[in-house]
Amino acid sequence: QLDLLWTRKQNVMYNLFDWPTQKHSKLIILAIANTMDLPERIMMNRVASRLVCSSTLFFRIWDCSKIVPRCVALPLVCLLIVAKLCPQLFGSVVAALSGDARRCLDICRRATEICELARQKRAPEIVRMAHVTEAIDEMFSSPYVNAIRNASLHEQIFLKAILAEFCRAGVEEATVQQIYHHYVALCRVEGLQSPTVSEIMAICSRLGACRLLLVEASSKYLHMRVRLNLSQDDVMYALREE
Which residues form the Cdc6 C-terminal domain (predicted)? Predict the structure, then answer.
């Protein structure tokens, strides 16, 4: 997962891709990234030059029609039950967010756990529609999601700016200064006055106090590094129009 190996000097990625170029090397590197043009976006020339002989394979985002059959094919009884109960429900929810099949697995796993907890209190039963619905509501109604929905307009715009920067860079970490450029552009779109640097830092501090962000403890202000404390899918779901 190249996104997680990125460092400022990029020594890790350089060494990794340099190994196959060594004389008599029989090493083959398979690297995965969430961004199609990651080499052009973040790699230094000395690192990108190691990829000259490489080939790239692009994977499209899965839609509902592909997510459900793949999940049903997995050797898990709970997936088979849930997929037969409501394939369109959880397939559509996942496809609408990111097409990540792991989200289906999480929903199915949680639905099974809810069923087993209920089984301890009542007569034995199988996973039903009610368990799946409860799992979906629980997953997409976490305290973090509710906190984002109840945040101020400028705080929500700041979170959108973070997502925009992560998408641009292909790395799930950014400085406040990098986020600020997207923030100003989003304010123009919304017809809002751009905030001052002190106001931006205050917004960042509030989101950090709510644990929605992980903010580097530093006095570098605009050069402080910021990460999300929840998945990008959850942030996008919380910021969607009702």
Answer: 159-239
Nearest to 70 by CA among 51, 87, 55, 53: 87
Q: What is the pLDDT of residues 99-131, one digit of tens each?
A: 556 666 777 778 888 888 887 777 667 777 788
pTM tops 0.70, yes or no: no
pLDDT in tens, 32-82: 876 666 676 667 777 777 776 667 787 766 655 565 555 554 444 445 555
Within 10 Å of residue 89's Cβ, how many Cβ atoms? Answer: 17
Structure tokens at 24: 């008599």
